[in-house]
Amino acid sequence: MAPVIKAHEHDVSTAEKRKGKRKAEDLNEDGGDDVLATSIKKRKNKQRVLLLSSRGITHRMRHLMNDLEALLPHVKKDSKLDSKNHLHLLPELADLHSCNNALYFEARRHEDLYLWAAKTPNGPSVKLHVQNVHTMDELKMTGNCLKGSRGIVSFDAAFEETEWGRLTKELFTHIFGVPPQARRAKPFIDHILTFSIVDSKIWFRNFQIVEKDPLQPNGPPEMSLVEIGPRFVLTPIRIFEGAFGGATVFANPEFVSPALVRSSRRKEKGDKYKERKLAQQERAVRQIERKREEDALAVAKVFA
Fold first, then answer.
1. Mean pLDDT, 10 residues at a time, over the chain (304 residues)?
2. pLDDT for the residue numbered 154
3. Which residues contact 188 (CB under 8 A, 6 or more apart)?
4. ∠290-291-297 over CA atoms, to 5°?
5. How are the residues of the chain apportioned to helix, strand and coil, as percentages rounded to the nearest 5?
6. Is the peptide bond prior to 253 cis by the omega test (within 30 degrees of 0)?
7. Which residues pair with 119 in a beta bridge?
8. Hey, how many other C-beta atoms are within 10 angstroms of the C-beta on 222?
9. What is the pLDDT of residues 277-300, one digit of tens each?
């Protein structure tokens, strides 16, 4: 009895296979192109950013990093890098964290902040000087947005006028554009990140998108922007071909190091001090030269 049942099951399975082949052939004859089109998966935006800093950052720099981490849900924060001379290790760290972008904050002299934005592991990378930093807690703006929501990245039209602007725009699009498949991203778009070029510097602002006037909640919808923060200004210094190094693609001739600016200010103060001391010496010499000789009929000699 058992061999008869096995033979019957074998016949049923072969018949089902033949029916499946016929259906596949009918699909290939009728709508083969549609099946191929649906089988090809859409290209996913897999952008992940490694965020870390060097040692020696101040509280303001640390709060700026925390604000950027809250704005970008696809960011992975790492511990501080011990040495500033081993930037070639950063692409390896990004690879270990499965990241293809990197934001590295480099602090010098506990007062100068530099930002490295790079595509890892092959580049390019941009070195920028960060100025006029104002964090969210410091500004206390009225704007607000959902933590983890995706933001619209907006660029000024001036980015298309120069080659370094176009390259920086493409790099910032990969870094600040949150992919929809990010693990911590939420399916909402309620704020906008703006990058504007003024005086050859990049100004960053973050605004909330308000669809209705809070004073008239039942009124007609009116789109407006309310600033959230943070805000800072970036001065491009150099663009390198590789990640954190390589051949120089662009160098900003107008950039002056902040250490050189402070040195020139100290020199000006030193020159003022030197001029004041020389004036005092000249006055003392004039007083000696203009001093009169004592007269024979002076009171001190007559009544001595």
1. 46 51 46 46 79 92 93 91 84 92 92 93 93 89 86 94 94 93 87 94 93 74 86 95 92 90 83 86 87 75 72
2. 95
3. 146, 149, 150
4. 135
5. 40, 30, 30
6. no
7. 101
8. 10
9. 888 888 888 888 888 777 777 777
**Residue 57 and residue 300: Cα distance in Å, rounded?**
71
**pTM of this structure:** 0.74
> What contacts 249, CB < 8 A, 6 or more positions away?
124, 164, 167, 239, 240, 241
What is the C-alpha separation between 5 and 3, in angstroms, rounded?
6
Identity at 295, one-letter amino acid code: D
Q: How many CB atoms lie within 10 A of CB 115?
A: 19
Look-up of token digits 């990378």: 125
- As a residue count, the chain comes to 304
* Tokens of residue 237, six digits: 């210094």
CA distance 175 to 190: 18
The answer to whether the bond into 91 is cis (omega within 30° of 0) is no
**Nearest Cα to 118, choosing from 87, 73, 97, 151?**
87
CA distance 94 to 120: 7
* Cα separation, 195 vs 171, whole angstroms: 12
Place of tokens 């290939």: 28
